[in-house]
Amino acid sequence: MSFKLVSVALAATLGLAACGDTIGEQALSGAVVGAAGTAIFNGNAGTGAVVGAVGGVAYCQISDRCN
Length: 67
Hints:
This protein is an all-alpha fold. The protein has helices spanning 3-16, 23-40, 45-62. The chain is 75% helix and 0% strand. The radius of gyration is 11 Å and the shape is elongated.
């Protein structure tokens, strides 16, 4: 997977992820956005889901918008 594709997936996750109340919900929302983003660009949806889940949780745990 190219760096550009990972960057796009991560940006989509951080920009579009709706934070949940629990870490599981945050990971799930990030994974959905990440998988969808990579599928749009013909990338590996599984890798996009993992990157998205990590990005979604990281964003929600760091950001004041989710609390």
